[in-house]
Amino acid sequence: MLSTTHNLSEKLQKKKNIDLSQAIANVTSVLDLLSKQRVNANDNFKTLYAQVKEIAAKLDIKEEIPRVCRLQTARNNVPYSTEEEYYRRAVYVPYLDDFCNSLKERFESHKETVASLQHILPEFCTKTDFYSLEAALNFCEEDLSHKEVVQSEFMLWKEKWSQEKSENIPKTAISSLEKCDKTFFPNIYILLKLLAVQPVSVATVEGSFSSLRRLKTYLRNTTSESRLNGLALLSIHRDIKIRYEGVLDKFASVPRNLDFVL
Fold first, then answer.
1. Residue 103 sits in the same domain as residue 158
2. Where, by residue number, does the polypeptide cross the bilayer (predicted)?
3. What does pTM read for this prediction?
């Protein structure tokens, strides 16, 4: 199961500029594959069980089934006729169901809003109409102008990208946001910004806590907040190249009783 979601986990944790519409598309692909495995659970588990038996034979491990419980408080007594059937019904199928439900709980709650919001992307807006944005407009009604204004703006946005070549049309919310004129398309800009900032994962936040744990030790217990923030930014964003000239210019811009000799 984890090998199926390995690439998805890597992408969600490492790719910071991914938006929620891309993430949901990737999760949907994984869920479709897992659903097919669930439908063909008998055949799939038969192959897995044969591999497990080979490994168990090499390690001299016998096939055993837990004893039947009189009081079924911690687990259920699964009916079975063979050891393979027991482990399929007691382990494989419940784990597969729980695996799919966890993915759905994490991403399905955003699906309706995102499915509506993604129609604002140039890739989709040329193939759809304004009423496809109904859920998105209800979601962020307080941030937008009157519905008629948004509708006219959407038609202008649609006309703009219908005249472009397919290779020049942006595919993601972030790239679309860069091509959006904030003054001419203010409501479209707000919708794109909402789509771009919808959180996909918490990997970046968890990484900052890990860096803070390394920095805030008992030897640095009296470090001031501004210094700690600076050290944390240097540690978290170590991939950003710093121009020494820019640092010196910023340092020298503050009035100081110092003579700089370069």
1. no
2. none
3. 0.56
